[in-house]
């Protein structure tokens, strides 16, 4: 790894903490990966009083990072029922221009989503390699956390959704690289399946009557793909962080959001670029309502969206 990449991660982390670390927060989410290390460093160096702040980890590595920095960890399931996380910081493997993210490259995924969705504000920090116009550009697969017994069936269903690389390779269970042979296990003891898709994913702006983003011709829109994968039995979490941002979701009366409100990218020239999520995006459903009947399990009636 070259030092300019590390410098880029560090610069992005320091800028993100400088601009967003709230006054007197109660709970702060700390993500996983290599970039988040600099976020913790930035928090420590900022001189803010953290003696009354509890830091919520997104997995084993993140918890050790918090403890080693002398900060106070609190497990996600120890949060008081009505408490929100004031802010969550995390890295990403790829970020598109609408701030949808691919995450899970380091095999942390499910707990990252729990924390991001419970946060009033989710801030992403990354280096310039991660900034792409659309997802599945450089980072060619969508990581998916899968219950091991269901892995083969999940991969079969993924192939039915069109998961294949431009060279024809299908989804794969991620293997470990260490002495112990076999798949790597997540903090939940699950597998990660890496599912390639043949085209960069669309955002709602790209949709046309010809390209609905529903998988036809291999073209998927980010949220539609995330939902289609999440519907497969055995899938715990999909490494696509999309949907409403924190404030958007809070206004709508639902808890938090998965898509960051802002992303900080350390650039190769030493500068930091910040992207903010758009306040209002065209909704996929509003633009092209589903034509097929939607079966409502609750009423046993068939509802057709008009
Ligand atoms: O599974 C890992 C997480 O989603 C990471 O946040 C992501 O892979 C980015 O990691 P890094 O900061 O090391 O590039």
UniProtKB/TrEMBL annotation:
It holds the Pfam family Rib_5-P_isom_A. InterPro entries: NagB/RpiA_transferase-like, Ribose5P_isomerase_type_A. SUPFAM superfamilies: D-ribose-5-phosphate isomerase (RpiA), lid domain (SSF75445), NagB/RpiA/CoA transferase-like (SSF100950). It is an enzyme of class 5 (isomerase). Its EC number is 5.3.1.6. NCBIfam families: rpiA. This is Ribose-5-phosphate isomerase.
């Amino acid at each position: 790894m070259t030092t300019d990449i590390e410098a880029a991660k560090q610069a992005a982390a320091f800028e993100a903490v400088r601009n967003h670390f709230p006054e007197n927060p109660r709970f702060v989410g700390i993500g996983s990966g290599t970039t988040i290390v600099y976020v913790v460093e930035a928090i420590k160096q900022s001189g803010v009083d953290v003696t009354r702040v509890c830091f919520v980890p997104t997995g084993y590595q993140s918890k050790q990072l918090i403890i080693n920095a002398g900060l106070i960890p609190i497990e996600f399931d120890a949060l008081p029922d009505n408490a929100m996380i004031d802010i969550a910081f995390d890295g990403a493997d790829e970020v598109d221009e609408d701030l949808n993210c691919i995450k899970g490259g380091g095999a942390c995924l499910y707990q990252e989503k729990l924390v991001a969705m419970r946060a009033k504000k989710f801030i992403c920090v990354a280096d310039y390699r991660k900034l792409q116009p659309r997802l599945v550009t450089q980072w060619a697969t969508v990581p998916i956390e899968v219950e091991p017994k269901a892995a083969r069936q999940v991969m079969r269903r993924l192939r039915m959704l069109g998961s294949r690389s431009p060279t024809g390779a299908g989804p794969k269970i991620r293997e470990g690289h260490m002495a112990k042979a076999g798949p790597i296990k997540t903090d939940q003891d699950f597998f990660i399946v890496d599912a390639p898709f043949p085209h960069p994913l669309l955002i709602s702006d790209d949709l046309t009557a010809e390209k609905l983003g529903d998988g036809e011709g291999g073209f998927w829109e980010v949220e539609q793909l995330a939902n289609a994968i999440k519907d497969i039995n055995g899938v715990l979490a999909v490494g696509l962080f999309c949907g409403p941002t924190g404030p958007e979701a809070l206004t709508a009366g639902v808890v938090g959001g998965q898509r960051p409100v802002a992303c900080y990218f350390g650039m190769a020239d030493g500068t930091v670029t910040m992207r903010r999520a758009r306040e209002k995006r065209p909704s996929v459903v509003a633009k092209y309502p589903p034509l097929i009947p939607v079966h409502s399990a609750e009423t046993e009636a068939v509802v057709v969206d008009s």
